């Protein structure tokens, strides 16, 4: 024995030594690492950003077939310039621009712009043609990273269509400090208050209403949902465990996700590990929130005075343009030269005009308009809330309202353009009308007096016949794109048989079936009156329905556990459980197996239905009474005898579940309920059954007395059984007093 | 040269992004940048002055375009150009004088025709150069240079004669011009850097015992001015209008209180109510225009009108770099800048009704018309608005007004 012990001790010691040594080595390594850490720390001060110059969606089609989204002009400046200018002035020193669709165009643009030679911002490009989602892009960057390791620390992840003027340095600092304290805090997400429209549940940016839950103290993001919200019922479902594990939760529905993230390097490796993560929010954020094993956390940061928004669809294009004109994005506004753009002059009422634009005297140019360089505006034109690019020529008596006309567009006399986007080099011939929501892609030619129907998208390229049913993917055109374009163009020129009038050129794209109803949601046009009326109507109906079913609409239902989603009505649940217990009990009676086995079975039922033991007591007692009632009998006396015998036989079973007073009360309640509803025959026998239960020690006198007390305050109708067993209760009370006096006497004796 | 280019770019960037605020800081950066431009500029043997002027102008144009609202940049560029012209002129006259002597001594060595023409011409050239390069200013009149009625030569004739004269000793002049210009620019830097102190020195002459002073917005010049009076044992009260929506008045008030001045913050709209109790309004200006108009923080016009109504003295404190030779009605001059409406509104609160035409802007500056009387104080003392054109004639040369 002793030797063995010694051996063990020795081994232990050896182990200790080994551990110590390891520890030492580790410490040394750490020390070594610390030195390099410090140097790293210095280089880590280099603030880096990854800019995804591809939206990986098709929402801007057909325009994005010919030009990448980030190069589309937003108030006459390419979107990517806003993003880069903001990153630069926020103190970012190095930007990795990830290009995918039309990568050559993006790279060429950056090369010719001042960004490549910028003194304080280093712009690098990463090119990939295989990536079809943000997830792929980050995986690609991660793989490259393994070779080059250029990204040394936390980085800002934005997309190339973000417009913002928020300061980043403090936010990055905050993220770093949080990371130091908590290894698992891998991401900080920027949010901004922005009320969604109460009618359409749609944000100003045309995206769905976003629901997020945040821990009010730590600002940790707990819940993120934008798709699966049932607006019709006005409810959302939260996992109960969310409320269990957090003492307080703040739930927002008026937040806008700015799609600006401060990420730690772990984010990249997470994408690498989970190869099915595609979408940054839908997959990654939700994935991290659900995953308890890794325990990674995402935090939020709310901005108040600064601006941030992402252009996701045509509606947000419209909204952000207006915000820029209204100067929310200061200093990134058209009259300031922030990125090599030529500044315009700001006049009264938010009218920006290039110095060499030629306006006819009779032209009526209203508020919130932008007129670019070399543009001519003819006599009698009416222009309101619109942006007109450089080198356009606009004939006389043209009406342009709420529209975005890009560069070198020719509009002949008498056209009417409302809430449309008109790309470069488009020709609109005399008398043509563009109805709200129209998008004309590059070089389209609209024929004389032609009326382009609302929400139509027109391009020189034919609509790709193969619809990607899956996620919005846009990439295939990138490499072979130019060749296709040319051939497409040629075809068009030859055939000329156009859908846009005899002298026009271009195809009107079909709207795919499912999206037709949704079209107005993402369009540049404001939501049409009839749609609004429809929604209001629907809302009113909902309210009426809601009032009848649920007391308040928009009520937050903290639901039962998510496991039995199909049975999540608690009342129904109990019904099922009761029936199962009854079946089990009957089998026990028929097959005559032991009480222990019955208990085992009922216990397993209890676990699977997530019931309390009081519920078991109730259900078991119910089964017994049911059996007694179902057994053939002639008189009440016989029924009572049956019941008594069953109860006596299975008192072990019942007794197992009625150890607590509460459970015993549950049994009495159950009996009462049965007497009133399911088995009225038992009514007259109520007090006798109670007495039997008392006699076989299933019920204690305390339980009966408490039940009597509770009942004392009830309605007269409910008191029937209480009155029936009045004598029994009286007797019980007396017995108790006697007991007490006896006790006292005994004590006195003692 | 490349490093100058990069610093210019960096500065242009800062100006563009509106990262430098305040006229004094901008003016200092600008003049320091121009000094390095001048010192790095390689000067050709001929026409060194015009080479320098071109270089400074090229940089100046970039800077002005980067932030046209900040007039101090243009002012300082013009001042530097003026310095170069002045130094060139004085060197030329000196050279002329030297040449005259040389002509007299070595007459026969020269070409005949030249020899005859030169002595007669040189005096005329000097006078002409003086009259063209330096417009008749108070200073020149008092100096009493005898002006001869000569044919108006253009300034290029001065350069011509200079190119001839440089054959005498070119290298020394080249070095001297640059040296002198940098010397002068250094003085300008000192002037700009010390403008607060210089103006503050005059405080005691203007602020008297038990007076009540009203000021608006935040200006370092005003702060130093008031504190200088306080240090000299003057006791007085200060009202500070808060200057919504940027509330810089609050900052000023805090500073004043920290230095022990009894201070009261009032809302902008209360200015008129308080003005009858005020003995003097003192404000800092963003710029003083050629016609005597003042550009100041938003709300300054209201204060000016109130002061006029109650005949309260109105004093504008501004360093000489804020004196702008342009007129406020010039369409090339951007007088104002609208900032983000987020200074006024909370974006979130209004986000659901923005599309329906809630518009707002937050202007930074305001122009006060020169029709009312005020007293402009710079480091040389006080001036009336009607005197502004004289000051401008002293500080700037007419060739540079349009860049």
From TrEMBL, chain A:
It is found in: Cytoplasm, Cytosol. InterPro entries: ARM-type_fold (IPR016024), eIF-2B_epsilon_N (IPR035543), eIF2B_epsilon (IPR051956), LbH_EIF2B3/5 (IPR056764), NTP_transferase_dom (IPR005835), Nucleotide-diphossugar_trans (IPR029044), Trimer_LpxA-like_sf (IPR011004), W2_domain (IPR003307). SUPFAM superfamilies: ARM repeat, Nucleotide-diphospho-sugar transferases, Trimeric LpxA-like enzymes. Residues 1-41, 463-486, 545-564 are annotated as: Disordered. Residues 1-24 have a biased composition (Basic and acidic residues). Component of the translation initiation factor 2B (eIF2B) complex which is a heterodecamer of two sets of five different subunits: alpha, beta, gamma, delta and epsilon. Subunits alpha, beta and delta comprise a regulatory subcomplex and subunits epsilon and gamma comprise a catalytic subcomplex. Within the complex, the hexameric regulatory complex resides at the center, with the two heterodimeric catalytic subcomplexes bound on opposite sides. GO terms for cellular component: cytosol; eukaryotic translation initiation factor 2B complex. This is Translation initiation factor eIF2B subunit epsilon. Keywords: Cytoplasm, Initiation factor, Protein biosynthesis. It comes from Eutrema salsugineum.
Automatic annotation (TrEMBL), chain B:
Keywords: Cytoplasm, Initiation factor, Protein biosynthesis. Gene3D superfamilies: Translation initiation factor eif-2b, domain 2. It comes from the Eukaryota. Residues 138-154 have a biased composition (Polar residues). It is found in: Cytoplasm, Cytosol. One of its GO terms (cellular component) is cytosol. Residues 138-173 are annotated as: Disordered. GO terms for molecular function: guanyl-nucleotide exchange factor activity; translation initiation factor activity. Component of the translation initiation factor 2B (eIF2B) complex which is a heterodecamer of two sets of five different subunits: alpha, beta, gamma, delta and epsilon. Subunits alpha, beta and delta comprise a regulatory subcomplex and subunits epsilon and gamma comprise a catalytic subcomplex. Within the complex, the hexameric regulatory complex resides at the center, with the two heterodimeric catalytic subcomplexes bound on opposite sides. Belongs to the eIF-2B alpha/beta/delta subunits family. This is Translation initiation factor eIF2B subunit beta. It comes from Eutrema salsugineum (Saltwater cress).
